[in-house]
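## tool: complex_structure
## caller: assistant
## args:
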Amino acid sequence: MSKFSTAAKRLLVGRPFRSDRLAHTLLPKRIALPVFASDAMSSVAYAPEEIFLMLSVAGLSAYAFAPWIGVVVVLVMLTVVASYRQNVRAYPSGGGDYEVATVNLGKQAGLTVASALLVDYVLTVAVSIASAAANIGSAIPFVATHKVEFSVVAIIVLTAINLRGIRESGAAFAVPTYAFMAGIMLMIAFGLFRGLVLGDDMPAESANLQINAEHGDLAGLALVFLVLRAFSSGCAALTGVEAISNGVPAFRKPKSKNAATTLLLMGVIAVVMLMGLIVLAQLTGVRIAEDPATQLVNAPPGYEQKTMVAQVAEAVFSGFPAGFFFITAVTALILVLAANTAFNGFPVLGSILAQDRYLPRQLHTRGDRLAFSNGIVGLAGFAVVLVIAFDAEVTRLIQLYIVGVFVSFTMSQTGMIRHWNRHLATETDPAERRRMRRSQAINAFGLAMTGSVLVVVLITKFLLGAWIAIAAMAVIYLLMTGIRKHYDRVADELARAESESSFVLPSRIHTIVLVSKLHLPTRRALAYARATRPDVLEAITVNVDDVDTKRLVAEWDKENFSVPLKVVESPYREITKPVLEYVRRVRSDNPRDVVTVFIPEYVVGRWWEQVLHNQSALRLKGRLLFQPGVMVTSVPWQLESSEKVAERDLVAPGAIRRGLTGKDPMKDARK
Amino acid sequence: MSKFSTAAKRLLVGRPFRSDRLAHTLLPKRIALPVFASDAMSSVAYAPEEIFLMLSVAGLSAYAFAPWIGVVVVLVMLTVVASYRQNVRAYPSGGGDYEVATVNLGKQAGLTVASALLVDYVLTVAVSIASAAANIGSAIPFVATHKVEFSVVAIIVLTAINLRGIRESGAAFAVPTYAFMAGIMLMIAFGLFRGLVLGDDMPAESANLQINAEHGDLAGLALVFLVLRAFSSGCAALTGVEAISNGVPAFRKPKSKNAATTLLLMGVIAVVMLMGLIVLAQLTGVRIAEDPATQLVNAPPGYEQKTMVAQVAEAVFSGFPAGFFFITAVTALILVLAANTAFNGFPVLGSILAQDRYLPRQLHTRGDRLAFSNGIVGLAGFAVVLVIAFDAEVTRLIQLYIVGVFVSFTMSQTGMIRHWNRHLATETDPAERRRMRRSQAINAFGLAMTGSVLVVVLITKFLLGAWIAIAAMAVIYLLMTGIRKHYDRVADELARAESESSFVLPSRIHTIVLVSKLHLPTRRALAYARATRPDVLEAITVNVDDVDTKRLVAEWDKENFSVPLKVVESPYREITKPVLEYVRRVRSDNPRDVVTVFIPEYVVGRWWEQVLHNQSALRLKGRLLFQPGVMVTSVPWQLESSEKVAERDLVAPGAIRRGLTGKDPMKDARK
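## result:
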């Protein structure tokens, strides 16, 4: 069982990483861009479509708002990029928004950001994969009718890949990201050239469809609300912009400058693609309805609404289907890559939070990637739940998505303003002060922008699903505070104990060897116990069966051990309580003694053997530890079946030994 | 969690038993009869009915065979009783058939009997409860239409009662058993008086129904087969006869004689009830069909077939419904009591088998009844599965039942013949030899009888369900042999090791304290480790984070411990493997040293705290035990939350301390 599971794990997880090897893979800008920007770029695949889709509720006439909404989104995007360029300069450590908020606004703000980010990682996976499914579905109808199944399988595959090992090469990111960028740019250029220069007519397949408003004609406040809602959805384009701020340490030097440049580059490219797609959508007359079945009255029977990107590509590359297939393929690919970003980010954030004791300690050390694996599996699990719960519908998932991103943006910009205030208070150099003031102004503008968007998002999306994301954030927040409180309480307890008493060596060691039979494991335990030269050494046995006990006592007498064997009566034929009672009595008779209980244990190699041995010993061991002033020593007797396990621990996986061959695994840190 | 489960267990399980108290409740015959005979007597409730039911397949005319089948069953019953009277005299230890078979025929025979008995215990519960449900259903139609639910609930209630504590008083058995015996006897006497002396007409409610043969008229071999099958079902009356042979030690002296007398008494009463019921059934014209819906053509719509006992009672006590209700109530009650017998017997047999190493060792000691509880829950679980799988239909369950009983009878009688042969080989006293020869003859006749019945049962029931019981027996047999083989292999391994090497004291103790932080748990571990005065004492820490490690080394230097701190590098940021490597190296440098690894551990009181602490330590501990020549010492640091658990272990349950007040729990078995 354990053998199989280890083998299975190896197969899935691959060889362990060496932390020193990871540390030396610094990224040039041309690789850093695709590695960190795939998330942000991929948003272009669904953000403009969501703008049209939301506007469709008010009928075709509302489509006229689309370019203007696009412009506002671009404005917000550029502001956020400008703001984050300040962030990466001020906080080059890679802590990102969590660090900025914690340092400047305190723990609670940091935790709020962390909760928002954790929720967002899950949503990034769900939204990206659902959108990838929709894009592939535009080319392959079978996928369109099995979106949920496809998405779940995709998440599982991604999980398996990430369990095997992450970030194997920058090329894996570079090729699809540049292909996507090139493809979309080419399509935009070619489309604009055909439409505006050649004056070609490029009707999308939905160009002739009539869109009916869902609730009749909207006007006044209702229309404003709808436009704001479309804008909120369009702001999905901003998701992932913060990724670079978490990745600064991976850049080549000068890290901050390179990161800032990459950020700007990413912003410009994203903005161009976003606006280009909106313009092309209008040129080709794409119709995207929120509810195609009821809104598109003159659609042919069996009409399946394709994604906007797919429809635009089809129209622009009409007569050249390879272009259409290329665009949908690279779009799907970059979306999968974006989902993968979350698989990298989630466990890293988890380990930072664990270091700050908001998550269980063991997440901090990578320990054969076990903790990281748990994070990856957890992330995938929640994403699968979301995909299934929302039928892999991007539009429905996106309602949950944006709130977290903007909570994090807003908190981070607020933190930056404080940051500059703090520095301005001590800085005297006028040039430096001017630079700081300028940075602060940028962050303040960023705050105003992101804060407003957050309010708009909350108002327009709350009932549509944002409340779920907020509730999840609250739960995570409370959980993390609870964990931290526990660790703090433990630290307090230790500090109190430390101040109350200083350690003196225990006066004597009273060693008790637990005996059930006089066989080799017991003899070994006795020999080891004697070798520790305790002040008192005695053996005890629990009398659960008079005949057995008498035989044991007789054997003991015959052997002439110098160790006395005491018989502890057990009127209820149980083992644990009489031993606990006995130990307690020894302790209370000699309070300054330390009691060591030696327990002989069989070590077996198969899980079912464990059922046949040591059950009483294990139970007893667990309970003994609760008694103060007691140590428990396990003296193992390895049965033959255990040998394979011991070998496997040290030799079989190979990787470690191979990794260690040139190097002494121990080095004395002291003289 | 653990607190709750203990509380819940206490609530269900009640106070622990004292083994010395159990030993002194010897039973007079008048109590022993109901305690051990309820199982056998209760069979009367379904055995005669099953005879009629099987015959119904051939139509009403076949009912004429019923009394003759009854006579043969009585003959078998009396033979078996006579045989077992020899058993209880020869084996008064209470080992029963398992002991007789093991001693005389060897381990394999003993195991076969044990497997058969374990399967039978499960079936006793299922059949008895299903029959109880049918009888109660005859008086309360709601129960008849919800037999499965009723049976499952009844088994759960019985399980809870048995987890609380068994055999609280003989009266609990005596009252219902005597009430049942008195009720049935009275009914038989009154019925025969009315029918034969007064010449009353006492038609049962089904007396006017026409029974159609299921497969047309049967003749020749088919009829013989059917009659044999009806006889097999009737032999269900014999189930439980062997119970007294397991209970001999509980009888007052002279144990064997009293047990033999009780056995005879039980046999006579059972036989009288069986034949009485068959005669009454014929007098009242009861019609029992295998498939009432198709066979009883002129039944009124919605006709629900009542049990034979209920129909007879209704007819005999016509105009006096209290009689009918009394009979069905006491019948149901004794059936539940019979099911309870299995709850007593199953764990006892399990503990005997564990003593012989056919089941996990821990079943041997009662340990706060935990092992017994597992047995009881397992028994109930399997019984529930059977009840659900067979719709709580007695007729379908009984096909599985009889084969096990007769395997056990046959094995036991074969064993007894061998037993007498062995004794005859050495015995010279003619009177004694004559007595032995007579006993042997009785057992031989018993063997002939039970062997023939076993063959008949196998032939007539195999396809109807007996194969399931046989398959279950085979699985249990193989499982038990496997467990025994494992224990034997371990014993062999130890013996080989013992002959190869004699123990010498290890030359030196090399003590390693595992350090992750310099806090109180670590200081305590260091102090304790130093108190054991090892030959080499060193501390090691695994470097998973350079910053943390440097801080630790600096603190360590400041404190001026006399213990060196070694830093073990961990290129893969894990803990277990570097430590294993290090320990292995220490061992190979000094093969005669014993390495003790001291691990500081937090002890916490709540299950979720366990998730937040010690995960790495636990993992490491588990792996270290696989390395030869290594001891692992846990040095616990009890957090405050653990105190309640420690208290609970010793004080809270109360029972033990109360039980122990007058008595010192330790007594020195040595001078």
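## assistant note: Residues 1-24, 651-671 of chain B have pLDDT under 50 and may be disordered. Chain B touches chain A through 107 residues (CB under 8 Å). Handing back to user.
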